[in-house]
Design brief:
4 copies of one chain form a homotetramer.
Chain A lengths: L9 H19 L6 H7 L4 H7 L3 H11 L14 H10 L7 H16 L1 H29 L8 H18 L6 H15 L11
Chain A binds a DNA duplex (31 and 31 nucleotides) through α2 and α3.
Amino acid sequence: MTPAQRPRVEGDREEEIFAATVRVLAEVGYDRLTMDQVAAEARASKATLYRRWDGKAALVVDAVTRAKGLPDPTVPDTGALRGDLVGLFCGPAGVTERLPMSVLGGLLTALHTDEDLSAAWRERFLAPRMAVSHEVFRRAQERGEVSPDADLEVLGTVLPSMCAFHGTVLGRHVDEEFVARVIDEVLLPAIRRPDTATSDT
Amino acid sequence: MTPAQRPRVEGDREEEIFAATVRVLAEVGYDRLTMDQVAAEARASKATLYRRWDGKAALVVDAVTRAKGLPDPTVPDTGALRGDLVGLFCGPAGVTERLPMSVLGGLLTALHTDEDLSAAWRERFLAPRMAVSHEVFRRAQERGEVSPDADLEVLGTVLPSMCAFHGTVLGRHVDEEFVARVIDEVLLPAIRRPDTATSDT
Amino acid sequence: MTPAQRPRVEGDREEEIFAATVRVLAEVGYDRLTMDQVAAEARASKATLYRRWDGKAALVVDAVTRAKGLPDPTVPDTGALRGDLVGLFCGPAGVTERLPMSVLGGLLTALHTDEDLSAAWRERFLAPRMAVSHEVFRRAQERGEVSPDADLEVLGTVLPSMCAFHGTVLGRHVDEEFVARVIDEVLLPAIRRPDTATSDT
Amino acid sequence: MTPAQRPRVEGDREEEIFAATVRVLAEVGYDRLTMDQVAAEARASKATLYRRWDGKAALVVDAVTRAKGLPDPTVPDTGALRGDLVGLFCGPAGVTERLPMSVLGGLLTALHTDEDLSAAWRERFLAPRMAVSHEVFRRAQERGEVSPDADLEVLGTVLPSMCAFHGTVLGRHVDEEFVARVIDEVLLPAIRRPDTATSDT
DNA sequence: CAATAAACGAGACGGTACGTCGAGTCTTCCT
DNA sequence: AGGAAGACTCGACGTACCGTCTCGTTTATTG
């Protein structure tokens, strides 16, 4: 048998459970993930899981949000809006990986049902990413790339929305080409500075 | 004890089951809908449901797709892109109703898992709606409202994407004001004919 | 397609259905026999089966009772009780075959539940066999082999009872050796004429 | 065969489930007993039932075999074979109660199909009872009531067989009168000691 | 350094929904 | 007109997963 599995320091244990959760998540996707499977993978008991989290959805949200090793969205600074956006969405924390779409698709049901969960998801996962995106647009606006009266809140949502739609509803793979296409065909033309939008793929 | 067991015409039974499915769907939402409930509502047996459909998701997709009485997306013709889009998205088959978002959110899990189902969903539900949307843009292009070299495929996806994102992921209500905002702040500026995009809210 | 399946004369059709029933019965036993299987085997529709019989049990009872080709219990006459009994129970209509026990075991549930069925079973299947058995004892009594005040009703039930018990409850195979043993160790000693019971195996 | 598992208390839960099973069994009989009903009666979940038992038949066999409060066959000792047999078969664990026949009839189908079940039934239910019966005969033989060369195995089966046959196949009620009749008309005459068999009803 | 309370692994449990199966009923179409 | 074909309702089956619970064990903290 394995040598004595001692109760860990609180933070430690959570970390391992998060890791196990993300591992299972990546392997079978959200809806085929079961609590028993996570418990087994983490050599934990289900009681331990439910002691800390409200349920499967809460655990997954927490894991996806707080697991170590998960890439953080970083604010790139290429000096131009286009480069910043491509870097942000196609980087390590971007949407071109398979996992985010799988998780998002599976969570939607739960998000729609559970208000607490929905709030947690928005605050911990969405908000930081939207903030980074917003920051990118704000800087572009400062540089004069974006019209001063542009609606940054809406513009900042275009790319996430379209990536999510493509990845989940349309079931197509979200790659850099798609991201670039949205930027070039929708965002740059829409920011009302045609002179800076002449760059093409 | 058999209340009016009328002879069933070809496909009659399906109609009734679809109706019952949509009824339950509207009442409790996708994830709280159970096959037993649908069976009871339709005075059908579960065997009948499973004989025709692979499961809950397949039944719901079929029902949402083929049930009589569901509003069809119609091509409005107001003579201007903005009016057409508002009419399309805020009309009876639009996205401002509560049902479509509830259903969409619940289905995504299943869509992600089952390829057949996903295909059916795209072909029967999405494709017609996307076609209508595309048609609206095509006519606007003919009228000269939209630049001839605009990427209609991407532009036509902007509004559905953003409505779906707002309604499901962000959990906000999608109303006419939001639709108008997206049109005015993103779409019209992006179509590269600033002279026709001067209309404001 | 199969060539025209014309409606048959009533008795004819029943005969074929009985044959199919017995065929299926012999193959899979009573409890694994399904009405669909019988219908398919007989190229009949289930409606036809249920038009004539009350259900599975009734059909099987009727088939086992009235199917052509099934051996009838015949009254042997060897001049001695022992020979008559062995001939009766180990002959073609005897209990040493596999089918009767399989059928009997399966029917018991239904017999216990349905009074009509139970009556039919007793009248059509049991009664004739018991009558033959009784006749054998009566003749032995006339010959003086059996005491005049012996209780023929009980004695006549000993062998069927014990064969049924061995075959169904104890799950052992009923063969000629067992029949002979019961006759020699129980019946003959019990008929109160020790002088005629000295014959041993 | 159950591996030493640990419910709340060792075997506690099983006891309750057995009790519920026997209760339902006595109320509606074997074939109208459903697993859901037992689960409800025992406030158990079906999963619990199926975790421990293979199905309805296995549960019932186990319950009838191991439930506390069920009367055990006890070896009476009246000093005479006749009294012992009447006491054994008409006592609290005897065959004159309604339940045993109802259960036996219902189980036969399953016993015939499932070999494991059949073995369990024979070992746990039949064997102890047959052993008691055999013991009664053995003592009678020691006392000289029964001929030393009598076939006790067969003789011990006569009464169970005939009671089972009467109760299930013939559908007649098995009462003390019938038991006495079999003893007096078959068994006592057959034991080859006419001098001790002169006792009449 | 032993005693104790907290956290834990293991996994049985109640509950709910699932998807399947067979009995028996019913309609339609065909001959 | 009667039968074959087979869809239909009903109800029970056996399974899967969620979230709760109990038990015995391990660990960190106290007396």
